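Weekly puzzle thread! Below is a chain. First person to post its structure in token form gets bragging rights.
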Amino acid sequence: MKTYLDCLPCIIKLIFETIKILNLNDEDAKKIFYEILEEIKKFDLKLSPPEITGELFQKLKIFSKASDPFYKIKNFSNDLIYKNKNLFLEKINNSRDKLLTALKISILGNIIDYGVNPNLIIEDEINKLFTKIDENTNKEVFEYDLFLKDLKNSKSLLFLTDNAGEIILDYILLKTIKNLYPKIKIFLALKSTPILNDVSIIDKLPVNLGELGEVFESGSIYPGTILDKTQEKFLEYFNKSDIVISKGQGNFESLSKDYKKNRKIYFLFLIKCRIIVNDIKNNFFKNSNIYDIVLMKN
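Winning reply:
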């Protein structure tokens, strides 16, 4: 997906909010913000929003000398969701279709995104999540039957992770898949360096992802996946896995136009802005709405 003009204010706001997180003095904060504004002028809007955001975030880390501005927020998100994990497990175990419920919980966990809303209160988002689990889905953008068919015929699965906090719910989803389909070999690709509140390979998590399968870094330094800027090992797994689950809006924005049409890639995310609604309507399905949960095949 290209970057629309309407994306630029959101990117600038994200950078501004990140600078605020660093608690710099006003003079240093202003200097860094103005330097970032100069940098943003250089980018072609043909690039996807995650690519522009990722490049600016790396500049911000250099200017501010902060290697991981979201470190505390990520740990807080992970710990809070982990403490509440039994609530989600109980919801799944008591449901008629465990996989469907686990999928919905994982996707709704995508609402825990400081990149979109740096002022969110996680406790409130958990409550919202629980109220939405039992809501009907928009079947046009939630291709569950198709996903189920492909999953049953797959021997390997590559999962592209997204944000902290929701990674605990992704862990629960993948464990559900592993229990239902024990023959599927699972691979998990994490970002190679801290980027916003995404999960990176260096993060310490309260769950052991290694229990699920092989965990490795994708090579990505972006809040998404730019295929020609990933590691060779990632591309090998991306191309050979029977099914790819691309988690989060950033991965959708960066991969939706850049993949082989015959690849079984499923995008899992929560629609969080009108630009994505319009992009889906213009390029994929006619019926999509803000806050739809998406399970969409390429």
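Puzzle host: Confirmed. Bonus trivia for everyone else. The chain is about 45% helix and 10% strand.
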